[in-house]
Amino acid sequence: MTENIFLFIPNLIGYARIILMIISFYFMPYNYIVSSWCYIISGLLDAFDGYAARCFNQSTKFGAMLDQLTDRCGTAGLCVTLCYFYPKYMFFFQLSIVIDIACHWIYFHSVTLQGKRSHKFIDLSGNPVMRIYYTSKLVLFFMCACNEAFYASLYLLHFTKGPIISNVSLFEAICYGTAPFAILKSLISLIHGYVACCNMVIIDAGEREKESLKNN
Questions:
Q1: Domain co-membership, 156 together with 172
Q2: Res. 115: pLDDT tops 70
Q3: Same domain, 53 and 137
Q4: What is the helix (H) or strand (E) element at residue 143, kind and residue range?
């Protein structure tokens, strides 16, 4: 009997994330409380779908792509709102959206196309810094959390400064504290994108070489 991958538990969690994300987008311009809670819960569920996939042996390419797209679209939707709230910095939010979506997509796509690994492919895990980024779940979680916290704090600051601790706004402190990590994450995404482009060119060159040999 064929399994219905669409109804796998991690994918059902993924659909719930999408629904919460859409609700968050709807309320984002004027109700930061509802929007924030929906956005936060959607983000927290991101940890549970991976756990469910491993627990129930339901890891799939569809689920991985669904998870990636939901993450990218969620951040993009938030950045679109920030363009509206902070039009002076629209260019930087636009760059953030483009870098995040384009670099993750081409990297994910190149990994899928590679199939069997080749010594010719560029492997970032050979770099000590990138190896930590790839293998340490704590580091990856920290970087992603800081990235989300940066944009979320900018969003919240449009409505309120939040709790004041020792004459310092909590949301402002989070914003300034996480900004360097958000920038660093974008730089890492650019590196991913560049490496993915190089690997796809390697794939193209190999296929063209095979086709040339076949024709000769």
A1: yes
A2: no
A3: no
A4: helix 137-157
